Amino acid sequence: MSVLLFTIIVLVGALLAGLLGSLTGLGGGVIIIPLLTLALGVDIHYAIGASIVSVIATSSGSAAAYVKEGITNIRIGMFLEIATTIGAVCGAIVAVYLNANYIAIIFGCILIFSAIMTLKKKVDHSTLDNSDRWANFFKLNGSYPDKGVEHKYAVKHVPAGFLMMLVAGTLSGLLGIGSGALKVIAMDNIMRLPFKVSTTTSNFMMGVTAAASAVVYLHRGQIDPGIAMPVCIGVLTGASIGSKILLKTKTDKLKIVFAVVVTLLALQMIYKGISGL
Amino acid sequence: MNTPGKENLNDKDIQVILGTLLRAGVIISMSIVLIGGAIFLVHNKGAITDYKVFKPELSKFSSINAIFKGVLTFHGDAIVQFGILMLIFTPIARIVFAIFSFLIERDYLYVLIGLIILAIITVSLNGGLAH
Questions:
Q1: What does the alpha-carbon distance between residue A15 and residue A56 come to, in Å, rounded to a whole number?
Q2: What's the pTM?
Q3: Per mean pLDDT, which range of A151-155, A159-163, A249-253 is the poorest?
Q4: Which residues are CB-contacts of A266 (< 8 A; sequence separation ≥ 6)?
Q5: Domain membership flag for residue B49
Q6: Considering only residues 64 to 103 of chain A, which have any Cβ-Cβ distance to chain B shorter than 8 Å?
Q7: Which segments cross the bilayer (chain A) (predicted)?
Q8: Segments making up each domain of chain A, as ranges
Q9: Which string of DSSP letters, residue by residue, matches A112-153?
Q10: Domain assignment of residue B17, given as a range
Q11: Interface test with A, best of B87, B90, B105, B125 (most A CBs within 10 A)
């Protein structure tokens, strides 16, 4: 395939991936990697390198808007970034030495898990019980503005949340994705944050987490300009369009269709991985 | 997020600057990627791609030094890689800024946390772990 044709195909694919990723909340990375590996036969190491770059671009772009609104809890974000960056660097180092087939299998499993997570009804676990010693020590309890009213919230189970973030960071570094689904489990279900705070704070953390693993990928030659360029331009453009549509449309049906498609892609990746072993 | 007794406006200012920093980083680095990409395509549009097998030894720009040298030659792929490097540094710059703002707020615990994150990234940046 010529460079021009390859660039155009990847650009269009990445645009769709970014658009669907932002509409469904799955993120662009989990879609662009199967597309590159299954449809275009790109080695998963290159696909991961390109995807992580697009994760930095989209998360920094949207974090910029959220931070200005004052919803993001910067302290929680930075505190948990210790866990995600350690995890990300470890994950990225393991990925360098891991056989592409194993990565594909793990990727497929996480993809199915993420698809299920997007379909699950979210339950607000937020609490005002500010008795957690760790949360008080690290000053994690806070408040966020919603329609002009300040809502207070407290943080629970900080060590368990921290450990879960270590796992989320490792998978992010290993697979080149934002691993938003795992971060949401850590912050919503374990640490009991309100949705608005957890989604925006998770987004805020993604950039630094991805940068930590991107640095390792860069040194290992996994970030190839020829793939990374159309991927990050496409995903960022798609995600920006998606965030504008998102405000106007209901996405429930889209999520179901999308979860099915993603699951099929995941099964194909797992199958390909196992048959290649 | 506002610690009781601290100036409210201060936190708000920091949030606005932080947001602007992130946005500017993304816009500037993506513009560089776009320019580099255009130059790359003009020169290489007919070349044949081959990404079927991961060949790290063929990577021309896998260190910061190599990227800077490449940019001086005006090769499109080097400029793209430089833009990507700037994009990677955007969230890192955000950490540096956060450290300073916590220093101004005299929140030394979070200055320390910021420095820890920076140290983790610096260790992997030096390539000691990756090579």
A1: 16
A2: 0.89
A3: A249-253
A4: A34, A107, A108, A109, A111, A112, A115
A5: no
A6: 64-65, 67-68, 70, 72-75, 78-79, 81-82, 85-86, 89, 92-93, 96, 100
A7: 31-57, 78-96, 102-119, 162-186, 227-247, 254-271
A8: 3-276
A9: HHHHHHHHSPP----B-----HHHHHTT--EEEEETTEEEEE
A10: 9-44+55-125
A11: B87
